[in-house]
Amino acid sequence: MSLPSLKALHYFTVAAKTGSFVQAGESLHVTHGAVSRQIALLENQLGIQLFERRNRAVFLTEQGQQLAQTCHSVFSQLEKQLEQLTAEQQAQSLVVSCEPTIAMKWLIPRLGDFKEKYPQINVQLVASGGPIDWRQSGAMLALRRNDFQWPTHLYQHKLCDEYMGPVSSPKLSMTAPDTILLDTATRPNAWAEWQQLSGQHLKFEHKSYEHFYLSVQAAVAALGVAMASFLMVQDELANSQLDAPYGFAKDNSAYYLLSEQSFCGNRAIFCQWLSEQINLSLKGVG
């Protein structure tokens, strides 16, 4: 005899527990007719009656009671095993919230190295900046620049100082009179801050983009000169898509890795790896 379907056994178990096809249907989010059909199929396959139908009520037969006890035990064990597997999977997942431009331009291209070194840890990225909604985002770690005040109870690990500088396509001359300086809405004072720190004063027309990654791509396309974090453009500098003739100046901000829990387990592994990667990147700053 072939084994009954798991669906039929599940419907039977719920009906046996509730003592009603109607209540079983409500619990399973199906009609009571669907429950009745699955149980009828099960009875026909087994060749035994599992329920007595009397006056629109149902009662387990002796054989039905025996099967219900076995099914309840089996489904309870199955539920516990699934919960354990899910918990183990979640324990090996690491949800990291990261500012969008740093995520796209720096972190994502390096995650292959992390996966190769730690294949058991599944990193999931959430692109977000500013204050972190830990519960809604599900984030376990957050990579942020300290341009806002975060709660004092958070654990924090300083990764590096921020280095800013103007970048442009090699096709574009920064001394041309029609040069355009590219601003971003997310950091509108970036040009003014860099000029104060560097002592350089570039007086050209400005054009604003909403995000840093848009202004960086515009610079690659020779549409203007972008003000960018060194981390955001390291790869473009390395492959000669962008030049940085004035170098980069350390500003008064820094990047931190934040967590609601202490840096241990997978958090500690990712923190160590991230620190190593950033240190490697910053060897070329200047």
TrEMBL record:
Pfam families: HTH_1, LysR_substrate
Every HTH lysR-type domain range: 4-61
Keywords carried by this UniProt record: DNA-binding, Transcription, Transcription regulation
Highest classification ranks of the organism: Bacteria, Pseudomonadati, Pseudomonadota, Gammaproteobacteria, Celerinatantimonadaceae
Molecular-function GO terms, alphabetical: DNA-binding transcription factor activity; sequence-specific DNA binding
Biological processes per GO annotation: DNA-templated transcription
Top-level lineage group: Bacteria
Entry keyword annotation includes Flavoprotein: no
Organism per entry: Celerinatantimonas diazotrophica
Family the UniProt entry places it in: Belongs to the LysR transcriptional regulatory family.
Official protein name in the record: LysR family transcriptional regulator
